[in-house]
Specification:
Blueprint lengths: L12 E6 L6 H11 L3 E3 L2 H13 L5 H19 L5 E5 L2 H11 L6 H9 L4 E5 L17 H15 L3 E4 L4 H15 L1
Parallel strand pairs: 1-3, 1-4, 2-3, 4-5
Helix pairs in contact: 3-4, 4-5, 4-6
């Protein structure tokens, strides 16, 4: 059994940008960090799985999910102390859980579920699917984006965390809405 993941203690507020694939999470995360003059945590799963695909032409499997969750928090810990009041996380363990449940017939490793209750974040923005889907090596479910959105929202509701939904095809509208919500809630 894996040991518990630990987050570095800090007064920095942690904001998670989550949602289905191809909804603009990475772009919004970077732009928000720039606007608020702080750091962001890039999506570990994307780098890890892209490397796996490039080197072996292999896709994600159940054994990868714990590594992904641990790698994401390691990145967060590496960036938290140089941040300015806020840090933006491009996904977190809830995305890993939602992905596991949708891709493995409802299965999620109990360790991931336990960690999700131990890890603390201050606020979530979940991005809606009203943006065009763009194909890449890792994206695999263009026709199941609504299912993925519902899976993410269910995990947010289950943990009873603070979140808002970001909608709209126009990036500037999404960005401005996100800035307003962050200023209002934090």
């Amino acid at each position: 059994m894996e040991k518990d993941i630990t987050q570095n203690e800090s007064t920095i507020k942690k904001i998670v940008i989550c949602g289905p694939e191809s909804t603009g999470k990475s772009t919004l995360t970077k732009e928000l960090a720039s606007y608020f003059k702080t750091n962001y945590v890039s999506e570990y799963a994307r780098d890890y799985l892209q490397s796996k695909w490039d080197n072996k032409k292999e896709v994600c499997n159940k054994d990868d999910l714990i590594k992904i969750a641990m790698g994401q928090v390691e990145r967060e810990n590496a960036n938290i102390f140089n941040s300015n009041k806020l840090i933006f996380c491009d996904t977190n363990i809830l995305t890993t859980i939602a992905w596991s449940k949708t891709h493995y017939d409802g299965f999620c490793d109990p360790w991931l579920l336990r960690q999700s209750k131990l890890l603390k974040y201050d606020y979530y923005l979940i991005l809606n699917i009203d943006t065009p889907w763009i194909k890449d090596d890792l994206r695999d479910r263009p026709d199941e984006r609504l299912e993925m959105f519902k899976a993410h929202k269910l995990e947010l509701d289950t943990l009873n965390v603070r979140f808002d939904i970001i909608t709209g095809q126009n990036f500037n509208k999404r960005f401005n809405t996100a800035v307003d919500l962050i200023n209002k809630n934090l």
